Amino acid sequence: MMGSSNKEAVDASLQIHKQIKVVFVMGGPGSGKGTQCSKIVQEFGYTHLSAGDLLRDEVKSGSENGAMIHDLMNEGKLVASDVIVRLIVKAIQETDNDKFLLDGFPRNEDNLKAFENLTKIEPDFVLYLDCPEEEMIKRVLSRNQGREDDNIETIRKRFRVFEESTLPLVDYYASKGKLRRVDAARSVEEVFESVRAIFSSTEVRPRPDRHCNCFCKYSSSFAHYEVSTSIDFLPFQLTSFLKRVHV
Ligand SMILES: Nc1ncnc2c1ncn2[C@@H]1O[C@H](COP(=O)(O)OP(=O)(O)O)[C@@H](O)[C@H]1O
Ligand SMILES: Nc1ccn([C@@H]2O[C@H](COP(=O)(O)OP(=O)(O)O)[C@@H](O)[C@H]2O)c(=O)n1
Asked: GO biological process annotations for this chain's record (predicted)?
């Protein structure tokens, strides 16, 4: 077992010495996290870190943890939090960007605590791709990426883990007002319309009291918010004003 001073030295080497912005991207298996992340990368310049891909790369690298990670993934179980958190932090340290999408992370409360303890980072917001289970199963079974865990038996187990461990985190972020929920059962482009509106609103902060153009930005974004049912992050007065004007 690692001595405490040795562990502290490792933890210190994993500290992140730059100001970064993090968005957690959550959703069940096949909800479209990877698909939407690559579109967000193209349009908004984030770096996409997929927890599953980092783990699969670790397995391929033949590291000492590789066999254990491989077995857990094939059973649809979660890997120990310190393993995935260290991979994420290392990837952040090695990347020359200040905006990150963490796809498939956190998966449970323990993941979140381990990440917070090590990095002291809070996500700017949490994007949640909300999709019915039968649609997700259909997508995963036709994904064709040669993933050993994309078989019906393991998929069912992954769904149970999602319901039991990840959904409580989704509720937690909703209660903190940080959740941006999107209906992910639509086409890729329709889902991205909603996603784009959410990210646009965090990049540009128009001031409606200044002049008409600013209001127009809000006004056109509002159509997207309606589709995404994610209007809870608009300032309250503006939301009620838009409701009066548009409805
Ligand atoms: N909105 C969508 N409609 C139909 N198929 C989709 C949609 N989004 C993603 N897919 C497809 O579903 C599969 C799972 O998507 P993926 O992005 O890999 O999900 P996740 O990363 O959440 O597991 C992929 O084959 C992808 O091309
Ligand atoms: N934070 C995480 C993320 C993924 N994983 C593991 O990686 C597997 C695949 O995750 P993924 O995000 O690539 O795939 P989806 O289940 O979202 O399709 C999970 O079923 C877990 O075994 C984990 O243990 N901890």
From this structure: 'de novo' pyrimidine nucleobase biosynthetic process; nucleoside monophosphate metabolic process; pyrimidine nucleotide biosynthetic process
85 is known to lie in a ligand binding site = no
Give the pLDDT score at 34: 98
Contact indicator for 199, 44 with CB cutoff of 8 Å: yes
My answer on whether 198 and 160 are in the same domain is: yes
Report the pLDDT value the prediction gives residue 11, as an integer from 0 to 100.
66
Residue 58 contacts residue 163 (beta carbons within 8 Å): no
Q: Which amino acid appears at position 190 of this protein?
A: E
Helices (H), 99-211: 109-119, 133-141, 152-161, 167-175, 188-203
Q: Which residues lie with the beta carbon below 6 Å from any ligand 2 atom?
A: 29-30, 33, 51-52, 55, 72-73, 76-79, 84, 104-105, 107, 111, 149, 158
What residues in the chain have per-residue pLDDT under 50?
1, 205-247
* Contact 39 CB / ligand 1 (< 6 Å): no
List the domain range (segments joined by +) for residue 223: 207-247
Same-domain status, 118 and 25? yes
- Give the Å distance between the CA of 11 and the centre of ligand 2: 24
Residue 18 is labelled as binding a ligand: no
Locate the ligand 1 atom nearest the alpha carbon of residue 186 and give its number.
1
Ligand 2 centre distance from Cα of residue 179 (Å): 20
C-alpha distances in Å from residue 142, one per residue of 32, 38, 53, 74, 208:
13, 19, 19, 18, 45
Element (H, E) at 222: helix 212-228
Quote the ipTM score: 0.98
The two beta strands, 179-183 and 21-27, are unpaired
* Per-residue pLDDT, 204: 55
